[in-house]
Write a structure and sequence with these properties.
This protein is mainly alpha-helical. It has a single domain, classed as Winged helix-like DNA-binding domain superfamily/Winged helix DNA-binding domain (Arc Repressor Mutant, subunit A, Orthogonal Bundle), CATH 1.10.10.10. The protein contains eight helices and three strands, in the order H-H-H-H-E-H-H-E-E-H-H.
Length: 175
């Protein structure tokens, strides 16, 4: 029985350092790194604007997702699937939004065990106040950096990847 170490697992006659270096230059590492850096940078730019309207990024996301849904209501489980929050996390966010009268809970007509989160008129008014500044920041730091064709290609690509890694994220939504 042969005792293998990491160097034995590398490509034949290739030093471990060379294999690691070539992997670190892989465009997949660059792609995911750029995506993470871009998302972090955009989130930082947007968070300050949400705070001006007494909203956290998660609260803003929940309000937008509810407002963009045709019924302006989603099952709590669908809302959790569409966000980066766990079911307990979405419950805490909806609790805060409900306390501020921006969201209300309703019984789910198709599932007696479930409940819906629905945006209220006050929630829509808060979004109406936030959106002009939000859209201006999105335009300044994101969409204006791309040509219309690049933006269309990026949206298509992001949807493809999102659907692969989070197929449940479109539950209850049409966007």
């Amino acid at each position: 029985m042969t005792n293998h170490n990491r160097a034995d697992l590398a490509e034949p006659d290739t030093p471990v350092e060379e294999t690691t270096a070539s992997r670190l230059c892989d465009p997949r590492i660059t792609a995911i790194g750029l995506l993470i850096e871009t998302t972090g940078g955009l989130n930082a730019r947007l968070a300050a604007q949400y705070a001006e309207h007494n909203l956290s990024p998660a609260e803003f996301e929940v309000l937008v997702r509810l407002a963009r849904t045709p019924s302006q209501a989603l099952r709590m489980s669908d809302l959790a699937a569409q966000t980066q929050l766990t079911t307990s996390g979405i419950t805490r966010v909806v609790d805060r939004l409900e306390r501020d009268s921006l969201v209300e809970r309703r019984a789910c007509p198709t599932d007696r065990r479930g409940s819906l989160a629905a945006i209220t008129k006050a929630g829509l008014a808060r979004l109406d106040a936030v959106l002009p500044g939000h859209l201006a920041l999105v335009d300044t730091w994101f969409t204006s950096q791309l040509t219309p064709d690049e933006l269309e290609a990026l949206l298509k690509s992001l949807r493809t990847v999102r659907d692969a890694v989070r197929p449940e994220a479109t539950a209850g939504a049409e966007f």
